[in-house]
Amino acid sequence: MDVIKGKPTAGLTYNPNEEVYWDKPALQGEIDRVYEICRGCRLCFNLCPSFPELFQFVDQHNGDVRALTEPEHNRVIDTCYQCKLCYVKCPYTPDDKHEFQLDFPRLLLRANAVRKKEHGIDLRAKLLARPEMLGQLGSLTPGIANWANRQPLLRSIVEATIGVHREKILPEFQPQTFSDWMREQPGPKNTDTTVALFTTCFVEYYNPQVAQAAVNVYAKSGVALECPKQNCCGMPALESGDVELAKKLAAANVQSLLPVVEQGKKIVAINPTCSYMLKKEYAELVGTDAAKRVGAATMDLTEYLFERKREGKFNRDFKSTPGKVGYHLPCHLKAQNIGFRSRDMMKLIPGAQVEMVEQCSAHDGTFAMKKEFFPLSMLAGKKAFDEMKETEAKVMATDCPLAAIQFDQAIGVRPIHPIQVLARAYEADGFPEKIPVETKS
Predict the structure, then answer these.
(1) Does residue 79 lie within any of the structural domains?
(2) Average pLDDT estimate for 48-60
(3) Tens digits of per-residue pLDDT, 369-400?
(4) Do the Cβ atoms of 106 and 10 come closer than 8 Å?
(5) Could you tell me the pTM of the whole model?
(6) Which of 195, 343, 199 is nearest to 278 (CA)?
C-alpha cells in the first residue's frame, strides 16, 4: 500500500462549486491525507470531541487511518461542531501558507455534504437549517410557542419525533421583532456616518434587545444604523449538509448588501457566526466578486466601534459601571483574528474589570440541541462554565447568543452582549455602581 503523503492530493478543494468537491473517491483521498497528518501531530487533541474520537479509532486500527469504518468516519464528522478552533491552532493551514493546505473543519463540512447528497437530509437537519423560518412561525404566537417549549410532555414528543433534546433550553420568541421595533423609531439625530446592520435570525426573532442596544450605542458616537433586506447567513444550512440552500441564502444576502458596499458603507454583524460567514465563506460559496466585496466590507459589531475609538470618535460619556465583567470570547470571533475588541471596548468604561473566558461553550450551532449530543455538549463546555463561575462577576457577557443560552443551561445565568454592557453604562441607572464625576473621561 502506498505511503500517505502530506502534500495535497488532486482531490483537494474546500469549494462546493468545484466538481471535484462532490467526488467521493477524491474526498476519501483527502480525508486519509488529513487524518494521517492529524494523527501524527495531535496538537488539537483537547479542542473538541472530534479529535479524541479520531485518535481513538486510528489507535484501535494500529495507526492505519485507511482502516476506519464508515460508522467511525461518521462519528468523527458528527462530533465536529465547526467551532473552527482547530484551524486557529493548526500550523498547516492555507492562511499559514503551508504546503499541506489543511482545513480540518471545512474538510468535514465537505464530507458531511457529500454524505447528505448520497443519503438525503433528514427532517431534523432540514428544520434546524432554517432558523429564519422557525423564527417567523414562532413569532406569530410567541406566548403559545414559548409555553409549548416549556412543557415536559410536548418536549418529550419533540425529542422522540424530531430529535431535539427534551432538557435543552430553547430560545424564547419575542412579542416584537427587531425589524418591527426599528420601523417605529424616528431615526438618530446628529449622526455623520451610516452603517448597515446585519441583525441575524437570532436577534431578529429571539433577542431584539441586542440590536436595540446597538442602535443606541452607535447613535451615541454619531453613527446611524440601517437594516437592508437580509435573510439567514446560511451557516445552519451549511452545517446541516444542505449546500444548495446555503448558497441560495448567501447569494440573496450578497445581492441585497452589495448596493450598501457600493455606497462606501460598512456592514456590521451582531452574531460572530454570521460575520464569519460573510467574511470567510461567502467568497467561495457564492463564487462572485460581489461576494468578495461584501465580505471585505463586513465587520463585527464591536470591531467597528474599536475603529471608531481609534479615530477619536467614540463617545465615552459613561455614567455607571458594571465593575467586574466575566467575558466569554466566542470561537467564531477567534477565527476572524481581529483581536479582543469587545473586551477592549468594555474596558473603556471607568471601573470595568474584564476577565476573559476563552474556552468553547460547545453549543456551536445546533450541536447542543441534538438529543444524542446534548450531554456531550455540556461535558465539552465544562471548562468554559467553570471558568465563568470562577470569575465571580456580577455581570457576564458574550457576543454569541447561543453561547449565552449554553451558560444559562449550565450555571443558571444568561450573559448579555457586550453592546448591552456599553448601552447600560451610558445610563445613570444602568448598573448599581455610579461613576464619580471626576473620573469620567
Answers:
(1) yes
(2) 93
(3) 999 999 999 999 999 999 999 999 999 999 99
(4) no
(5) 0.92
(6) 199
